[in-house]
Design brief:
Layout: E1 7-13, H1 20-33, E2 37-42, H2 45-52, H3 63-74, E3 80-82, H4 94-104, E4 109-115, H5 119-129, H6 131-134, E5 136-141, H7 144-153, E6 164-168, H8 178-186, H9 197-203, E7 214-215, E8 233-235, E9 238-240, H10 243-249, H11 255-262, H12 266-275, H13 282-299, H14 302-309, E10 315-316, E11 319-320, E12 329-330, H15 339-351
Parallel strand pairs: 1-2, 1-4, 2-3, 4-5, 5-6, 7-10, 11-12
Antiparallel strand pairs: 8-9
Length: 353
Amino acid sequence: MEKEKKKIVVMGGSFNPPTLAHYKLMKNAVDALDADIGFFVPVSDAYLKRKMRHSHPPVVLSPELRVRMLQSMCSDDSRLKIWDKEMGTIAASTMETMQAIQKYYPDAELYFVMGADKLDLLTHLTGKRDFLDAFKVVLYSRESETLDQLLKNSEVLSGYQEQIVILPQPDGAEGISSSLAREMMLKGESCQELLCPGVWELFKGFTSSDFPDVINSFKGEYDFLSNRFPCRVLWEGLEYRSAEAAFQASKCQDEKERRVYASCSTDKAIGKGKKQIPYPGWEENQLGIMESILRAKFEKNPSLMQKLVDTGDRVLLNGNSKQETFWGIDLYSWIGENHLGKIIMNIRDKETL
């Protein structure tokens, strides 16, 4: 008699925080399939920060805390576990995660949990990456008959109905979400009814003050924070057309050489600066040089200083997509020292003392 394959249910998510709905959906799927393991797979910190960057404020729980919350949620059922290997990556890929788990459990049958609202994603994963050739799916739906008809009518999914298990939404899961829990916390309201007891104990101490608001791009409404912003900058006896032009000129010790930059547009100054060999010691002093230039920019332009003050106590991140991690933050990997943002915040703080 052939030995029955081990069954593993996989649920991916931010779990920011994990909710009672996550628990009920996983527990229900594990019970329905008589599965051996139910893996919660939390996304990486970088992915979560990218996802939350347009939220105000961006409530991002640390990877360590999200794992602790999930551990508390799994504590009453030995089948429920955490697959935290995705947390060390920058990207979050359903296919790669499932392949990694399959490699670890080569003889197991893997089921990925999805809501019926993710049908487009399932179609994409199957049409482009043959997802349902390798794995099975648990689809939760409040209208199973309608979903069954949609699957039959799908050009991509109609041939995979044996790979798809449709389950009804379990009682008590509807209307519960991580975003609602975050929203209630920011309003100072209790969200205890949305969370498992252990998760609530870890989450209940947070308030809005723990999550300062962020400006993560010096563009659009906040382009005046950028060094490229066109404005009069009087520095070291010469007037430049932007802070960036002054900074590029600072690589020269000779005033005559710096004077050339004073008449340059920002783009031309950057082009010249890339070819300029800085004088000995410039690298070690560039942070102080940048601060003196930016002080000149804001202090000699009162309207810009007022706009800076109006940003309040928001965190200023010089976010970029160019992997520039000294002056800013790379918004894909979320790695960076953000020296430009720190200098500008220091100027703002001293102005508001």
